[in-house]
Each structure stands twice: as structure tokens, then as C-alpha cells.
Amino acid sequence: MGVPPAVASASVHAVETFTTAASGVSHVVHRNVDWKLFRRLVIPGMIGAVAGATLLSTIDASVAKPFVMAYLACIGLYLLFRAVGGEIKPRKPRVVAPLGLVGGFLDAAGGGGWGPVVTSNLLIQGATPRHTIGTVNTAEFFLTATASATFFSVLGWSAFTLHTLGILIGGIVAAPFGGILAKRVPTRHLMALVGGLLTLTSAWSIYSALAK
User: Fold this and answer.
1) 188-209, pLDDT tens digit by residue?
2) Number of C-beta neighbours around residue 123 at 10 A
3) Among 77, 79, 186, 190, which residue has the fewest nearby CB atoms (within 10 Å)?
4) 3-state secondary structure (DSSP) of residue 96
5) Which of 74, 124, 79 is nearest to 99 (CA)?
6) For residue 129, which of 189, 73, 72, 204 has the smallest C-alpha distance?
7) Cβ pair 184, 27 in contact under 8 A
8) Coil, strand or helix at 39
């Protein structure tokens, strides 16, 4: 569509401010949020989002996206392995604040990535899928709102376009169902779903980048 990376990321984050709000409310209602984990994630994530949005507004940091996608594809395959035959033993994640910082930065600088990066790495550390998904999605509202405000302060109104209006409408309609799925789908099936989606979307992103 010929949209500059900074404008594209700004538009996406503006839309996600509304969709993540709807998703977050759903997860809170269905008690999918680990509030202790939320507090450890949200502030570093917001700081990372400001840094990423500021960097993308001055240079094209999206060139690193294929490397991030390759990493996430490997993580997805590992999660699939654990879901199919590996042991799933819940543990308290230790590396949280640095993960939130990196996830927030990559999300704003690369136009997306908070969910895949943070969710997958928390699952690897042993966090339960239900509360990981609910907590990460709820924290994402604050992340996207911060990134949107940063893009607006740097780029002005030119940061926001009408290209993503359809995504906004569809996202708000679909977002609440995530809370229901996270609550009702069994742990092993939920981990397999996360791993499968992560592997497929990452592989497609790598292919798209190499095909250009």
C-alpha cells in the first residue's frame, strides 16, 4: 500500500488501543489475568514501546523483523513439542521485566510482536497458558496506548490513516472471544494452539520478507 513503516505502525497501534481494551475487559471478566505478573510486565512494556516508537519515527527499524520471526518460529516449534509430548509443569516465570521491555520495543519498532514475543517466552518459563494469554493481552492495552501517544507526538495526525478502519471494526467484534477461549480450552490444547499459530505466522512473515 506504500505506507511508510512509522505511519503503518502508528495506524496499527491506534486500532489496537481499542481492540486490546475490549480484549482486556473480556480477560478480566473471565479471571484470566495474573495481576502480579501484570504489574511486572506493564511498566517495562510501556517504556519499551516509547523507545521503539521514537526509533521507528526516525529510522526504519523494521529490517530486524525477519530475524525476530525466525526466533519466534523456533519458539513455536518448541511449544508444539511440549504440547504434544513434553511435560507441562507450571512454574513462576523469573525473567519478566526485561522481557516486557524488549517485547514493547519490538512491538512498536517492528509494527507488532508484543503478544508473540512475550507470550511465547513466558510459556517457555512455565507460566500457565490461560493466565499468560490473559495477562499479556490486558497489558497490551497500556502498551498500545503509550505507543500511539508517542507516534502522535512525533508524527502528528499524519500518523493515523483510514486504511485500518476494517481491522478496527473486526477486531472489536472478535476480541472478547479470546477471554472465553483462554478460560475454557485445556492447557495442552491451548499451548498447541499458541505454538502452531506462532510457527505458521512467523514462517509466513519470513517467506514474505525474503520474497520481496
Assistant:
1) 888 888 888 888 988 887 888 7
2) 26
3) 186
4) coil
5) 124
6) 189
7) no
8) helix
pLDDT per position as a tens digit, 79-128: 888 888 766 778 899 999 999 999 999 888 776 678 888 999 999 999 99
Output DSSP code: residue 115: I
Residues 6+ apart with CB under 8 A from 57: 6, 150, 151, 154, 155
| Alpha helices (runs of H) in 33-175, residue ranges in sequence order | 35-56, 65-84, 97-110, 114, 120-124, 129-155, 165-174
By the 8 A CB rule, do 120 and 76 touch?
yes
- Would you list the DSSP string of 49-82? HHHHHHHHTTS-GGGGHHHHHHHHHHHHHHHHHH
Nearest to 34 by CA among 125, 167, 113: 125
Indicate the pTM of the whole model: 0.80
Alpha carbons within 13 angstroms on the beta-carbon side of residue 87 total 3
Q: How far apart are CA 102 and CA 208, in angstroms?
A: 24
Cα–Cα dist 108/103, whole Å: 9
Q: What whole-number distance in Å separates Cα of residue 187 and Cα of residue 18?
A: 28
